[in-house]
Amino acid sequence: MPILRLRKTGHEAIEANHEINDCKEDFPMKTATTRDWKVTQRFLRQLLTGCLLLPVAAHAGSTAPTIKLFPTTVLEEIKHTGNVAAEMETGLQAVIGRLDEQQKLYMESKCEGNEGDPGCERMARQLGKSYLEMLNVMADKLPEMETAVNATSSSLEKRIRMELGQKKTSWTLQELLIGEESGTSATASQPSLRGRSGMRLSDRFSQYYKLVARSGGKTNSSLAVIASDIYLDMQETSSLIARTREEISRATLMEQLNQSFGTITPEMQEVVAGVKAILFGEEQDVIPMAIPPAGPADSGYESALQM
Amino acid sequence: MNPSIKSKLGGLVTVAALTASLAACSSNPTQATTCTPPQGPNLESALSKARFDLETGCEHEFDAYFQRLLTIAEGDPKQENKASFSDFLLWTNDAGLLSKRQAREIYNRYFGVKYVSLISDYSVCQQTCPDQSAVMRDMNRELGDKEQGLLRISADRLNYTRASNLYQETELVLEATCEACGPVE
């Protein structure tokens, strides 16, 4: 069964925004809030669980790597990005916990569909305040996060361009991937598991760091795949952060207006549930993954024509 | 020139032409003129007939013959089929039907793990990235051929899985590498 690697694309976000915008004319305030929350939620979900892939590999090869995809500088940048992510999570954890509590209370008070009630309106405003606070934390931390992610991405880009793009032909690249350059068998050269892990961004970076820091035990083919994975995810994360930063000021303004009107959307419960899942690293979508079957690397027959 | 000698010479030319024409006919057996790819479920018989036909005037039909052989082999998938095709392709090279390179590429397209679509002389940035989508399309087609050769003909699930994984890893690594190489100038 082939390895599955699913990646969210920018199109998804664009489509989602179109969908939301289609409703905007009927309920301008309500949908603006929903949209803000959804964008935020989407960002968090992708940042913390969705867009980064975790190769969990436990092989210990004997061949030292000959391609230099992860020099110390890149390792340090990955580590730093993990630290920045951890800080951001810490900042968000409290406010998201509060959002969760408020959401729970709002639901238990049967405020859903009863928005005109003064008590419910008050709760909705409190929920909105917490949301604003979350936006502020994000606005505060995102620039640093963006810088860290971009630095890692840029360093990896240079290494990939040099080591894989300029030093390899497509033929030698596939030989690297199949594990022949390092003299290892194909089954031993592949990470055993790849895919979304549902873990926090900081943990993920920590895993990345550990994975590549012990690269003496990794094969080149695995490193090429890991580097590619991390680089593409950094690119995606970077663009997501940029889009989110653009959204934050608008979302903040809209929520401030909502505070005046005291509106709350039923979708907020969904958002809080999503945010809670993100923060605690619960899985959102389980993506099937496959590993190559165990067994001998070769079928035995080797033709004189074999390349 | 004496008319009688002229007449004799004319006769000789005619006889020579007829002889040459008959000789040419005798070197083209009737089977070859029909060039019908082999039928039936037995791969070894089919290979034998294909060898005979291909070296007796049907070489222009090589592709049709080869496709038929693949189809026949699908009827009885087993590891040994790989060796049969290897021997056949080596023979095509010995018989002068295919170059060594052509034979090797055909064999590996169907029975190898690596992708002949990725054969290149220049760097990934220079040669592959400008044509990345076409390369991936070719690889995808080749994966289909490997499915036929490795899975449906040779019952070699392990190597087919390796080929399939290699396709996906190549796709990922090429995507990242071409992104890192930057836009084509």
What is the number of helices of chain B?
A: 9
Taking the sheet with the most strands of chain A, its summary is:
none
Shape of chain B: elongated
- Summarize the largest interface: chains and residue counts: A-B, 48 and 54 residues
- Main β-sheet of chain B: number of strands, strand sense, barrel status? none
Unreliable parts of chain B: 12-32
Give the N-to-C terminal Cα separation of chain B.
76 Å
Mean pLDDT of chain B: 87
- DSSP E strands of chain A, number: 0
Strand content of chain A: under 5%
Structural class of chain A: mainly alpha
Give the overall silhouette of chain A: elongated
Rg of chain B over CA atoms, rounded to whole Å, is: 25 Å
Share in helix of chain A: 55-70%
Name its key features.
heterodimer, A: 307 residues, mainly alpha, disordered N terminus, B: 185 residues, 9 helices
Which secondary structure elements does this structure contain, and how are they paired or packed?
The complex is a heterodimer of chains A (307) and B (185).
Chain A: H1 10-24, H2 28-50, H3 72-108, H4 118-166, H5 170-178, H6 186-189, H7 201-213, H8 220-261, H9 267-279
Chain B: H1 3-26, H2 30-34, H3 43-54, H4 62-74, H5 80-94, H6 100-111, H7 124-128, H8 132-153, H9 157-181
Helix pairs in contact in B: 3-4, 3-5, 4-8, 5-6, 6-8, 8-9
